[in-house]
Each structure stands twice: as structure tokens, then as C-alpha cells.
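Repro case for the chain-ordering regression, as requested:
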Amino acid sequence: AQKITQTQPGMFVQEKEAVTLDCTYDTSDQSYGLFWYKQPSSGEMIFLIYQGSYDEQNATEGRYSLNFQKARKSANLVISASQLGDSAMYFCAMREGNRDDKIIFGKGTRLHILP
Amino acid sequence: DTEVTQTPKHLVMGMTNKKSLKCEQHMGHRAMYWYKQKAKKPPELMFVYSYEKLSINESVPSRFSPECPNSSLLNLHLHALQPEDSALYLCASSRRRTSGAVYEQYFGPGTRLTVT
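-- result from build under test --
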């Protein structure tokens, strides 16, 4: 069964607008972590933000915030004031706390920022 | 410093060649990973090393041989590869998972491998 679901294969957003990238997950563990990574065309996976399952506050890192809704098993990434440099593939990922050192990635969302 | 370095950036090899990919980190991370990524797909885990010992092998063919000589270095030895092995190979590192704690992985820029 798919553990990380990203339902938006591609998105087009006007520069300076906010954008929400969707991610839902499935786990029976109480302890887990959720991540978002950005992958520009150059190939490097850039860590953006992390949310722990026990964290009560939504994580924020600069223009990135994670809208964590635990009951709905949802961990959407919000990018405020999008920039042309935000054009990239974005992966949602999960690491289950009681399992091996594995990250499970979603299929990704390709974000295009339009000038 | 959250840098993971990988060499070479690009590699073209024939099916009879032997080559190696190298990954290095100086963050004191004790877990290191190799991933394979095909175009427009998410990374697929290949191997995990924890405290320099192989802890996960995701049923990778034996033509890929990982090695962790020390806590900062991770190699991937390649031999008799097939054209379908052409992909981006990513290395990552993280703090070692402890009970209940979950840590992010930091990735290198990858090696783009082409097998001819």
C-alpha cells in the first residue's frame, strides 16, 4: 500500500503567490517524521522542513511552512510569496520512528513558477 | 556545515567496466545511504550503512557493491552494469536513528551515470 501520496503531478503558480503542495501519508506508528525535499533540475535533493509526529506546532522555515493535520494524516507544504527559483520537483517523505533507517518518498509534485 | 559531496558528477561507462562512486560527509553522521533515481521518479533506497556496517540492502543486484571504509566515507563499486542502470545516484547521511527520534537526511548532488 502506498504510504505517501502526492496527488498533484504538476502545478503552475504565478510568481509572488502562495502555493500549497498536498501530501497525505499512512502509518500505524505513533512516532514518525515527515519531510519535504526540493529537487531542482540540477539533481540535488534539498531538505526544506521537518515535522515530528509529536510536535504540536506546525513547522516553519522561512517561506516554508508545513500544515500538519494529524487526524487527517496530512502534511501539506505551504510556500509563501513564491519565487522563480522555487520551480523544482518537491517530494514529501516519511520516516517511521520504530522502523529501519528508511525514508519513504511520495511520487513528487513538479512546481512551475510563472513570471 | 550540512554538505555531502559526491564524485564524480558525471560518469559514462561501458558494460564491462569497473568504476566507483564516492561520497563524503564531515557532519559526524553515523548513517549513510545510497539511492538510485530514474528520471521523473522518486529516489529508491539501495543501501544503508549504520556505524560503518551494512544494515539495509534493498535486494540490489550484486553488480553494485557498497563499501564504508570509515564514518565519513561511502563508496559504491560498479561492475558489469546494464544500460538500465543508467540513473542519478544519490548519497545521503543522517544522524543515527534513536528510539522514537527521527532525523532528516542530507543529500549530496548526485552522480549521473550512463551505461553504454
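Ordering looks correct now. The CA atoms of residues 25 and 48 of chain A lie 18 Å apart.
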